[in-house]
User: Fold this.
Amino acid sequence: MDDLQLVRAVTSGDQDAFRSLVEREQAPVFRTCYRVLGRIADAEDVAQETFVIAYRSMGTYRGDGTLAAWLGRIATRQALRRLGQRRDEVSIETTAERPARAIGVDPLGQAIMAERSARVRSAVAALREPYRETVALRYFAELSLIEIAEQTGRPLNTVKTHLHRGLARLRDLMAREATA
Amino acid sequence: MNDPTDGLDLDDIGMQAVARELEAFADDTRVAPSPDLIDRIMAAIADQPVPTPPVAFLHAVGALALADAWRAWWLNLRVALGGGPASGRLRSQALAVVIVSALIVSIGGATVAVGAARLVQAMVTPTLTVPDATPTPSPDATPGPEATPSPPPDASPSPAPTTSADASDEPEESESPDESSGSGESHGGSSGPGGGRTADPDETVDPDETEEPDDTDDSGSGSGSGSGRGGSSPGDDD
Assistant:
């Protein structure tokens, strides 16, 4: 079933069609949220919100991009919004919340990975819009530049410019943090 | 993930390093969600209404997402006009959404337009009245000062009545020429001597009376006749 057929089925009240969509897209949506937020519990909450929003808005799906990219953008926006709400909170990532792939790595490796993740996450979060959204869509939601252009409605060259400037700002931010 | 640069021309080594670090971060965070996430999501949408175009429109309006609302409105229009397979109930709902929203937008637009027009009128009329008010006093003010100097010209006619008063005096003095009294009233003191001449030509006797005005000129009526006599007086003064 392609995306448009899936959308038609969902908008005609077929919840099984939506379930198949959730099964197909839950992992990338969750990963996107986790990369932005860094907490599994928060990432699951936001992933759930993402699917609820997608379900409600299914009637407005244009079909000029994949459903995966559409969901990726909703997830990125919701996660960045949640990040803004909890900006004042101190991020504490417990061992249990570490990525599953990190389990089995030696403690030093885990510590280095956790530090690097925190550094990248905070640097991306410190970017201004639209650079933050573009970088997050590219590296957290893993969308191609064309998909970003389709989902944001911006020209491809504008997306390239935003990503280029976003990376330049990230370079400066991370260099400043490294020297500090 | 694809090539992190993805067509980008990252000539800077630092930027390439950042791109590589972001990609490594994405690889490190390939986390799987908990198995019950799907059930949680399905439970969350279980009590949601079916996301038909009318419902999507209402959600978009409620979320103040104007672009989504606009898109949903078009979708409703398409459904209402018979595009795609849709039940009669859904079609009527879409039609209702299209008509009601169009009515609300047109009434709201008209209200805003009228309000804006009134506001503009209210803003424009004071500015018009102020210039109107300022010019009207200014012409009034300018004639005002001119009116005050004008009395001197008026004063010159006013002497005329005074001279006419003089002329009325003259007839009193020369009571005999009743006719000259009429001319004296009409022309005044300044024309008094002339008036005596015009009336008098037939009556040559009057030149004697014309001499009398010369006498009356001493009272200051004639400037020309007074010049000879008056010229002495300033000379005397000097």
Observations:
- The radius of gyration of chain A is 17 Å.
- Chain A touches chain B through 56 residues (CB under 8 Å).
- Residues 156-179 of chain A form the longest helix (24 residues).
- DSSP finds eight helices and no strands in chain A.
